[in-house]
Amino acid sequence: xxxxxxxxxxxxxxxAHLLRRHLGRARLSISCCGPGPAAIERWLGTQRCAxxxxxxxxxxxxxxxxxxxxxxxxxxxVIDLAGGCWRPDRTARPGHVGLTILSVQQVxxxxxxxxxxxxxxxxxxxxxxxAAFARSAExxxxxxxxxxxxxxxxxxxxxxxxxxxxxxxGSVRAxxxxxxxxxxxxxxxxxxxxxxxxxxxxxxxxxxxxRRIREVHT
Length: 218
What we know:
Layout: E1 6-10, H1 13-23, E2 29-32, H2 37-46, E3 53-62, E4 72-74, E5 77-80, E6 85-86, E7 100-103, H3 111-121, E8 125-127, H4 130-139, E9 143-152, H5 174-183, H6 188-217
Parallel strand pairs: 1-2, 1-3, 3-9, 5-7, 7-8
Antiparallel strand pairs: 3-8, 4-9, 5-6
């Protein structure tokens, strides 16, 4: 595919930075829109994407306990809890079964809620933006795809403060994450290890995302 007809959107600047680094010399249009469905819809509403394939790329939380942090895949189906379902054109064929991404309204923190949603929906990953992206892209008659990597496994608990570590424009609030880590001195080592684990998981996940984009779209 002509890279000039390919646009990649990442919810956070950190994801965009990692993707650019792992893609190396590949000349792709990579933008950051900010996290959440409203940011995705705003971005698509302001871009000239006619004739382009638009890819939503970034990290997601694992729901399927068999999937490890750092793995990445192209979605075959996007669903939400309201019953919506979208398929990229290239996978919309009879009998095709593949990876499913569930869009939720907030970051899933607890292992129990991840397990419950896996049992309820069968989705492999969870994110905030894919359903809004698919819905908006189809409304605009765009060719679209979602490529996500797992930054946190289904068995990993996340802190309630994690949502505040990213600003509305997608920039990382590193100081807030650091403050969370040092706020409880008795838990400092455990919190540092969690931050380190999430950082490594995101880097490996975006490396996998870059590889999938090369394999499927270029």
